[in-house]
Amino acid sequence: VDQLNRNVRGLKPSATLRINEDSNRLIQQGRDIIKLGLGQSPFPVPEVVTAALRQHAHEKDYLPVKGLYTLRETVARYYQQRDGIPRKADDVLVGPGSKELIFNLQMACEGDLLIPAPSWVSYAPQAKLLGRKVFHLPTQPENQWRLQADELDAFCQQEPGRTRILILNYPSNPTGCSYDAESLKALSLVARKHGIIVVADEIYAETTFDGQHQSMSVYYPEGTVISSGLSKWCGAGGWRLGVMLLPDALRPLQEAMAVIASETFTSISAPTQYAACTAFSRSAALDAYLVATRDVLKRISSYMVRRLSKIGLEMEEPVGGFYLLTSFEKVRPKLEAKGIFSSESLCERLLDEKGVAVLPGSDFGLDDNQLYTRMAFVDFDGGEALDAINDSGLSG
Ligand code: PLP
């Protein structure tokens, strides 16, 4: 169609949603499919949070564009306690999922987008929709897929003075790896030197198996934007509630984002915002839920790593989230003998012939010739898993 905006030409629906539709179609045709495609939390929303949602079902009015003030206060308090740096309600924006907030930020702000490769599927297409330049900065498994500070510095030195946004997602979708204090400190020095805005996509922070998440905002408070929400740790992806925290130095950016929100989504569902107040208030019930969900994820992750390693696949051991980035390079000769030379063809054949739905590394910015797939290990009944843990008294 001639009228198509040139920025949307060539874009496909989001890879994760596509694989889910493909697997559901095959299931409807009677195939038995192991769904390791879509990264959706398998756990039920904590009971205290659904109770709060029910209690506020009658709330029907539009809420303020930046979010319900009490929620913004609660979120600020949560992060202040977590990171030990001062936070206030004014730092917080609430939106319909962190995906939309990241897009909103990309709309509001100038500059090149830097993303480590591999990275989550949506950052680059969002940038493309806005006609923004994207640079993939390669990372290596031997460094736990962490962006190296000296490499970031060398990249920025090529053209000093450019406006840049860097998105760091940890624990990472697709690798399950994260950053430690030392690597964040090193990156923060480079970010400060080049005036880079760092978007810390911490949507999986609370799933970190040992509960020891480190945040970039501690080392680079003036330039770090935290992005998170209810989708992963609270099992409420379909509720569509994301939060973003911006430092004072980025207040004009936050104001611009609020203007965009006021002209687009207005505000998000009122009952959900009230329920989110409960979710972001620390409580014994929520702590127990987090301990139990992390325990389930850690056990499944270790099981997957053990079993996949046995058949010659390689991966870095995840420290959080529910993904594995698996290399099939060691079995390449076998695959090539079957005519499989790319991560996309590997995934098509796994789905068609074995009924296993996984995503190709190429969807995450890796070269399609590298035989990587991302596996989401969440195709199980999280409710039953939690019950089993609770029955065994393991959640303490
Ligand atoms: N960031 C990462 C790394 C993700 O994996 C996802 C969801 O898959 C999101 C952001 C978006 O989450 P939501 O829009 O549900 O908050």
Automatic annotation (TrEMBL):
Protein name (record): Aminotransferase
Enzyme Commission numbers on file: 2.6.1.-
Molecular function terms, GO-annotated: pyridoxal phosphate binding; transaminase activity
Family label: Belongs to the class-I pyridoxal-phosphate-dependent aminotransferase family.
Co-factor(s): pyridoxal 5'-phosphate
Native organism: Endozoicomonas montiporae
Aminotransferase class I/classII large domain segment(s): 32-368
InterPro entries found in the cross-reference section: Aminotransferase_I/II_large, AspAT/PAT-like, NHTrfase_class1_PyrdxlP-BS, PyrdxlP-dep_Trfase, PyrdxlP-dep_Trfase_major, PyrdxlP-dep_Trfase_small
Alphabetical keyword list: Aminotransferase, Pyridoxal phosphate, Transferase
Class in the EC hierarchy, top level: transferase
GO BP field: amino acid metabolic process
